Amino acid sequence: xxxxxxxxxxxxxxxxxxxxxxxxxxxxxxxxxxxxxxxxxxxxxxxxxxxxxxxxxxxxxxxxxxxxxxxxxxxxxxxxxxxxxxxxxxxxxxxxxxxxxxxxxxxxxxxxxxxxxxxxxxxxxxxxxxxxxxxxxxxxxxxxxxxxxxxxxxxxxxxxxxxxxxxxxxxxxxxxxxxxxxxxxxxxxxxxxxxxxxxxxxxxxxxxxxx
Length: 211
Description:
The protein has 11 helices and 4 strands; from the N terminus they run H-E-H-E-H-H-E-H-E-H-H-H-H-H-H.
């Protein structure tokens, strides 16, 4: 949070910055007069405090709602996602280095948060993208390419991607080294038990690896 304050002071020195943290009493003091126009330009806080003080944050009309580390709202069933979704804001911007971690449906959570009127249906998104992508495990290259191209075409207008080499010229190039680690006897036994389980076998037989 303090890093964001430092960056605003560096690049936008004319902005009035409200760094929202502290005890309940201190936060209440910081909110005095904050509904007045131009009482501040930017409010910097944490996810925890936003959820904790969500009632007062919902009363204010925000021009922009900008979430750093936006993958922290990837779960659409979480209290965090549902609370922030109901904030009154004209525009929303999500910042993240990992928009997709474990499941393609995490991406729907982010896109629905940004544009609920465009990305409305969770099930339609799943039918459109997630199920065909399960075929990747089977090496269906033609289907896979069509699905990936479709996904890129849909998302391209809404995503601005920046690589480290684009913004930090002094960083050296990244080199990947693959190191194979042998399983211990216990790890191999656990792995074989997992593969042999009826649930795992049923999932592999169904080819629906995303559930």
